[in-house]
Every structure is written in C-alpha cells, then in structure tokens.
Specification:
Blueprint (H helix, E strand, L loop, with lengths): L4 E5 L2 E9 L2 E13 L2 E10 L2 E9 L3 H14 L2 H4 L4 H20 L17 E3 L3 E2 L3 E6 L5 H14 L13 E5 L4 H14 L9 E4 L5 H15 L3 E5 L12 H14 L3 E6 L12 H6 L2 E10 L2 E11 L7 E9 L2 E7 L6 H4 L6 H11 L6 H8 L3 H8 L4 E3 L9 E3 L6
Parallel strand pairs: 8-12, 8-13, 9-10, 9-11, 11-12
Antiparallel strand pairs: 1-2, 2-3, 3-4, 4-5, 6-7, 13-14, 14-15, 15-16, 17-18
Helix pairs in contact: 1-3, 4-5
Length: 415
C-alpha cells in the first residue's frame, strides 16, 4: 500500500508516494489561500521530472479533485498504471488536499516572546528603508519619484553612503512596471555615474511594463530566492493592475504581496489630482506601510530639487525633512547631491507646486524631453491648459520624432 507523507517547504505543501524502488509520484501545492468559496491552491501532480497534471482548484470540492486526479492518471506511463490505479491516485490526492490546509498553517504558531530592552531599529537607508518595514514614497506624476527610488536602490545595492548614512549594503531587486527596459538601463548608467560608480554597475531588475504585480509575482519570488535579495523596490503601485486602488481589497492585496515577497520594501505611490499631499487610493496603503514619505519637487534652471518628509512612521520620528538636488545637462542626469540650504526656497517653505513646475519636473524626470500626450497622461492635465503653459518662455520645442512633438525646458535646449 502506498504511503503519503505531507510536509511544508517554505510556502509550498509537498507530499510523495513511493510506487517502486525510487519511483515516486509527487504532489505539491502553492498559492494556498482561503477564499469565499473554500480553500484554493495551485496543485501539481508529477512523476519523475514530468508534470502529469496541474490546476488551480478548490481543494474542498470533490469534482475538482476527481478531474485533476483522472487527468494525472491518464498521463502516467503504462508500466505504472497497473501498480498505481486511478482509484489509489484519487485517494492519495484526497488525503493530500485534506492535509494541505493544516500543513500550511503549521507555520503560524503562537509563542511566548520576551521584550527586548536594548533593541533598536536597523536601517538599510535611513530614514527611508528600515529592516523588516515597508515604505511608500508618494508624489504627483513626474515629480522625480523614479529617480529617487532607483538612487535608493543603487545606494543600498552598492553600499554607497553619498546621500544617506549609514548605508547597509544588501542585494536589491528593482521591480519596474512603468518604463521600457532600455530607458531603465540608460537611467541606471547615469545614476551610477552620478554616484561615483562605473556606468555599467549592475542592479538586479525585473522589467515587466504593462504587466500586473500578480503576473510577475512568482518570477519575482524565484529571483529573490536565487539572488538572496534583502530589499525590494516597486515602481509603481499605480501600475500593479490589482483593481480599483480606492477600494480596500486591492490595496490590502498589494501590501500583502509586497510583504510576502520581501520583509523590507520601498514602493512608489502617486497622489490624487486634487491633493498633492495625500497618497492616492485606499487608506489601507497608508495603514499597511510602516513609513510614508511625501515627495515634493522644484526646478531651478537645470537642477531638480526633491524634498522628502516623513509623514507616517512606526519606529522613527515623523516630520523629518531632507532635500536632494538632481542636476541635468544636455544628455540627461549629471549629478546627485544633498541640496544646499536655501537652494530650493519653495520646497523649504512648503509652497504648493504649480502646474508649470510639475511640467518642468516631469520633463527632467523623463530624460529632458516629453510629448504633450505623455505629460497629460502622467500629470492628469487638460490638453488646452497644457498647451497654454507650453507656449511660455520656460519651454522649447525639440526636434520632431515622427508625428510626435517633444518639448524641453528652455535651459535644457541641448537635449
């Protein structure tokens, strides 16, 4: 008689049945979750290196189990079918599914925990990225969030303390759902150079423009395990395609997936058009993160000033502010440094950002040029108002690209 032994391996429940000497049929279940209709999981039945059958099913539903078991038995080698009948396979699958949920939940047990009087918060990048914490940096579209997030990733990944100190060096995964792969490579090379690194210094990156966070979740988990990643950066929440971000359920799902991917993460969020001081979406985003950072920006000639203010923090003081300066030249980003006192007066005085400033910042953040279509979508601006602002002396038309007419900031005409 076959014997089934169920065990938990990470978040995967596994079991195997020995049919003959070192001949096994293996059962495994991933993405296990209680849903409204019952316990669901992705169940795979394999023999040797071959997957016989798999399905995402309600493991409490007999018809689902029977269909999967019959499908797997049809794929067994003929020599094994006599020794492992369809009824026996079905019974083992039944036992596996019955044991699946208790085995999965065995990892969640309560224990007595003593207080740690000498414990202190441990930082990768103070005050933005704390060990075991989730952070969200939010600002209007095109305000320099991606430049900041990638700079944080490079700083941690390479252990560079130019801007934040002390930096703890650790492997970072940058999940890019916003931009195409080539543009991210160009930006990375310029950030590397601005930080004093080789332009070719690598950063682990998963680029999946237009894909949902759910689509790339398993690939990200595999990469995190393979490269022993300690910090994940997500660019951005608005591109996760999890549903209406104003609803609590999608917000909780995104935060839960980030927590499950990596205990330490930094995500980029946007603001609603009517309120640049608020994170767009459900309050569950703010509730779910440990640190919330409001980003504001101001352009002075060819320098983009970024202000960072800690507006929510569980284990560090709120209200902390710091200012960075990203300088640009005719080819893009040229330098990153701490801003000088008084360099960005509007930021320090917390004056509201004008549409003109938002457009300038977006152009700088987009590599020195942008089309009206890109600006209108990113900044949620009316086309008529946008064109009126672009006709001012602050902006200049650049060389046409097919049917598109890109614009630059006048001080950046060489782009």
């Amino acid at each position: 008689m076959s014997r089934l032994s169920v065990a938990l391996d990470g978040d995967t429940v596994k079991a195997q049945v020995e049919l003959a000497d070192k001949v096994y049929v293996r059962f495994s279940a991933t993405r296990i979750a209680r849903q409204r209709t019952g316990i669901h999981a992705n169940v795979i039945i394999a023999q040797g290196r071959n997957n016989l059958a798999w399905s995402v099913l309600n493991v409490e539903r007999e018809t689902d189990r029977t269909r999967l078991g019959n499908s797997a038995h049809r794929m067994l080698p003929d020599a094994l079918k006599a020794d492992y009948s369809k009824e026996r396979l079905g019974a083992d699958l039944h036992d596996f599914c019955l044991a699946l949920w208790p085995a999965y939940n065995a990892q969640f047990t309560a224990s007595l925990v003593e207080g740690e009087p000498d414990g202190e918060a441990s930082w990768y990048c103070p005050p933005l990225v704390m060990e075991g914490a989730g952070s969200i940096v939010f600002a209007p579209g095109g305000s320099g969030k991606s430049h900041l997030a990638q700079t944080v990733a490079v700083s941690i990944n390479s252990g560079i303390g130019n801007l934040w100190y002390p930096i703890r060096s650790a492997p970072v995964l940058y999940i890019n759902l916003e931009r195409n792969h080539q543009s991210m490579r160009v930006r990375l090379s310029r950030i590397n150079q601005a930080m004093g690194l080789s332009q070719r210094e690598p950063l682990l990156m998963l680029t999946a423009r237009g894909k949902s966070l759910d689509n790339i979740y398993e690939g990200a988990r595999a990469s995190i395990k393979e490269h022993e990643v300690e910090v994940v950066v997500l660019d951005s929440i608005s591109r996760t395609r999890a549903g209406d971000l104003n609803e609590n359920s999608p917000a909780n799902q995104i935060v839960d997936m980030l927590n499950d991917l990596c205990p330490t993460w930094l995500a980029i969020g946007h603001t609603p058009a009517a309120d640049a001081g608020k994170l767009f979406g459900s309050v569950m985003f703010t509730n779910g993160c440990d640190i919330a950072v409001k980003l504001t920006s101001q352009t002075v000639e060819e320098t983009l000033g970024i202000g960072l203010e800690i507006v929510k923090a569980n284990d560090t003081p709120r209200g902390q502010k710091e200012y960075l300066a990203f300088s640009f030249n005719g080819t893009g980003l040229a330098g990153i440094r701490k801003a000088q006192k008084g360099e960005f007066a509007d930021l320090e005085a917390d004056r509201p950002v004008t549409r003109r400033e938002l457009i300038k910042t977006f152009i700088f953040d987009n590599g020195g040029k942008a089309t009206p279509a890109e600006m209108a979508e990113a900044l949620d601006l009316d086309r008529a108002n946008l064109y009126q602002i672009l006709r001012s002396d602050d902006f200049v038309k650049l060389a046409r690209e097919g049917k598109e007419q890109p614009y630059g900031v006048r001080q950046n005409e060489r782009v």
